[in-house]
Amino acid sequence: MKSEAGAINVTGALVGIIVTGTVGGVAATSSNGMIQTAQDMAARQNAAQVGTAQELAKIMDGRYTDLAGLEADGHMPAYRAAAGPRRFATQSGAGGTCFVIVSRSVTGRTYFATDLIPAPEPLEPNSATDLIPAPEPLEPNSATGCLLSSQVQDMARSLEEAAAATSS
């Protein structure tokens, strides 16, 4: 008689394959969601960093400016074309009194931030939102209080076109 100790039977092998496949499927689904969340957070962070550069421009130069002005005046590092398409844009309002930033995530979601703080939001002293509100999702009729909605949508469209041109 043969000893069956240590032998693998068909049922055990099938259970092992099913368990491994289930765990792998759950892990792949979870990591995909986490990657998309990280990409969206990167877009929000880009908007916040450009907002910080805009606030620096206001302090140093007395006005907000566009990306070229921020880079030329040393308020933010110059763009490197080798890094891929630029995923954010900013534009100042009349006389440099306000600004809007549009930032596009790799996922296709677009966010915006402005120099204005929404009226219903209470502010605590020294909070991070004293200068720049958190970037918000950009909707077709988003009102910024600085630029016309069509101008903001044009900024978003140019980012989408740049992303499409590099992916094709």
Global outline: elongated
In angstroms, what separates the terminal alpha carbons? 66 Å
- Report strand %: 5-15%
Averaged pLDDT, please?
A: 75
Supply database-style keywords:
alpha+beta; 168 residues; elongated; 4-stranded antiparallel beta sheet; single chain; 3 helices
Describe this structure in words.
The protein is an alpha+beta fold and 168 residues long. It has one domain. It has three helices and four strands; from the N terminus they run ααββββα. A four-stranded antiparallel beta sheet has the order 1-2-3-4. 26% of the residues are buried. Residues 117-133 have low confidence and may be disordered.
SSE topology sketch:
Elements: H1 10-61, H2 67-72, E1 88-92, E2 99-104, E3 110-114, E4 136-137, H3 149-167
Antiparallel strand pairs: 1-2, 2-3, 3-4
Gist?
The chain is of the alpha+beta class. Helices cover 46% and strands 11% of the residues. Strand 2 and strand 3 form a beta hairpin.
